[in-house]
Amino acid sequence: MTTANYDALKVGDEIPSLTTEPVSRLTLALYATGSGDHHPLHLDQDYVRSKGIPDVFAHGMLGMAYLGRMLTQWVPQEAIRSFGVRFTAITQIGERMVCTGKVVEKLEQGGEKCVRLELTCANEQGEAKHKADAVVALA
User: Fold this and answer.
1) What is the rounded CA–CA span in Å between residue 27 and residue 9?
2) pLDDT averaged over the chain?
3) What distance in Å separates the CA atoms of residue 66 and residue 87, rounded to the nearest whole number?
4) What is the DSSP code string of 103-118?
């Protein structure tokens, strides 16, 4: 984890990115076990094909977890004041996810120096799968 400094950051600065391994069936099985979300859309190829979908796809919350991991590799978890995510596209098997973020505002909130971030989880082709925002408190 790096040490983020409020005074050193400027609007437009990027935070350290996170690139994942390609999403695999094992990734989905492990995520399903950890989250308790065993929906067949994410695990059962016969089920999805019966619905006219060519293959299983990632849980939406998996992308949120990747964004959360990126944040907590930059600041301690207790520094996160808010974190909201919008799901914008399906993450397919084999896609490597690239999580990025940038500072869009510096502010004081509740007596703390904070930054507002815009975050994106996209595939390597740049197709956004998740758009997010977060506010973190910094020293």
Assistant:
1) 34
2) 96
3) 13
4) EEEEEEETTEEEEEEE
- Looking up tokens 């989250």 gives 35
Structure tokens, 16: 């350290």
- Alpha-carbon distance of 83 to 43, in angstroms, equals 27
**SS3 per-residue string spanning 6-18:** CCCCCCCCEEEEE
- For residue 107, give both structure tokens: 């502010």
Tell me the two tokens of residue 69.
């991991």
pTM flag (> 0.85)? yes
3-state secondary structure of 132: strand
Mind listing the pLDDT tens digit for each residue in 40-83? 999 999 999 999 999 999 999 999 999 999 999 999 999 999 99
Judge contact between 7 and 97, C-beta under 8 A: no
How far is Cα 135 from Cα 114, in angstroms, rounded to an integer?
7
- Who contacts 59 (Cβ-Cβ below 8 Å, separation ≥6)? 28, 31, 32, 35, 37, 39, 42
- Domains present along the chain, CATH in parentheses: 14-24+65-137 (3.10.129.10)
